[in-house]
Amino acid sequence: MGLQTEGRCAYVVLIMAAFWMTEAIPLAITSLIPVFLFPILGVLGTSKVCLVYLKETNMMFIGGLIVAIAIEHCNLHKRIALRVLLWVGTTQKCWGVPFEEYLDNDDGMKAGYRRARVGCLLAVAYSANIGGTGTINGSATNLVLISVLDRMYGIGTGLNYGTWMAFNIPGMLLNIFIAWLWLQGVLFFIEWRERRNQPKKKVKTLEVEKAEKAARSVIVKKYEELGSISFHEFMTLTLFIILILLWLFRQPQFIPGWGDWIKGDRDLEVKDATAAMLIVVFLFIIPAKPKFWCFRESLDGPSESSEALLNWRVVHEKLPWGVVLLLGGGFAMAEASEKSCLSYWLGQKLGTLGFLSPAALVFIITIMTALITEVASNTATATLIMPVLAQLASVVKVNPLYLMLPSTVACSYAFALPVATPPNAIVFEASQMKTTTMMKAGFAMNLICVLVINLMINTLGDYLFDFSTYPYWAEAATSSTYSISSHCNYTLS
């Protein structure tokens, strides 16, 4: 073939990027393109391509999804959601959707209901996107970063479940609060503009209070219908809490974790997928309604078998296999980009940005990432840019986390278009709002959240990860890949 390996790899990447952006074929099917196109073009062998589709990161993702399915299966999610709504209250300020001005007439009531519906659903989409940044398994994009870091730098980067939460949860809470303020401001501005055009319109406070009480009574009724917490819900919640604790204390760094204890002096890796699959197995072992020992209705009766907390039929129906393939396709593309020297070549070209200050570089990267994510899947965006940012960090000699961590989080800051993230698409379809409506409210949130992540990475991020020096683990990775760099320089010359 006349074209060099990195050129053939770039050809496949461009095809996949175009298909991911246009959704000409399903995203999951696009993710399978590397299995046949990389071997045919001589970029990467079939066995090597297939092996990366179920890496440790993907197994952790599958385990987290199965636990989430178990929570939904026992209706624990409804209990938690209704309890939170009762705790928050049903006033319009708490929900962020003013509707009192529309209680004067039927037409106004219909318009107010539509606007309140759009406001509530936008709040759900914003919260889902922002909330997914709080934990490693909160979004598939986060797992892409973890996979790239593990492959290129090993486990010494200092980024784990605990440090991820320590960095991202403060920013997540701040962004959610800002999103609430923003939606309040947008909706109240619309109301103020309409009141100015119709100055004689009156507000019926009594009707508003009745509506709020009616909403609360509906929530209370739904909550009471659930009854007291069942053994099924209790055990599922217990296993979920145990899983979170296992993830947090696998390698907490400030004390030896259980992963360190198992590893000992052996050359052994114990990662988060181990904890996830341990809990998954228990979900299929522990009965939902135990009918033995002290749980029997009658001590004289025989012990009986019971269905487990979760069964495979439910998992098979509800597990989003397409997202699993999407992650796998991204891992295959990243692997091929590294082996073919494409990532190295792109990193060298982007190294011309080294004249910028690190803070300015991060700002440009996060803005570009958020904009790209608006027209492409956020997971696809992360898989495309993470290997390139890793190479760029080695060229400009900054901590790779300083570039890659905010960029990963920015992949979730896409609020303006339905195609950007799954929550956007779901809310857009459910609300039947216009695309322009989502865009008007969303682009400002994009900018606000990008500014917040830039603030956090230069303050809290620097405190947690020490961005003032080029880390030893990045230096070691650069040294270990010197031969690869030499090979790439020879190939590209």
Automatic annotation (TrEMBL):
Subcellular location: Membrane
One Pfam family hit: Na_sulph_symp
Keyword flag Repressor: no
Positions of transmembrane segments: 9-29, 172-190, 229-249, 270-288, 319-338, 350-372, 441-461
GO cellular component, one term: plasma membrane
Keywords, ordered alphabetically: Membrane, Transmembrane, Transmembrane helix, Transport
Membrane topology category: Multi-pass membrane protein
GO molecular function, a single term: citrate transmembrane transporter activity
Family as reported in the entry's similarity comment: Belongs to the SLC13A/DASS transporter (TC 2.A.47) family. NADC subfamily.
PANTHER family named in the record: SOLUTE CARRIER FAMILY 13 MEMBER, SOLUTE CARRIER FAMILY 13 MEMBER 2
Protein name: Solute carrier family 13 member 5
Organism: Darwinula stevensoni
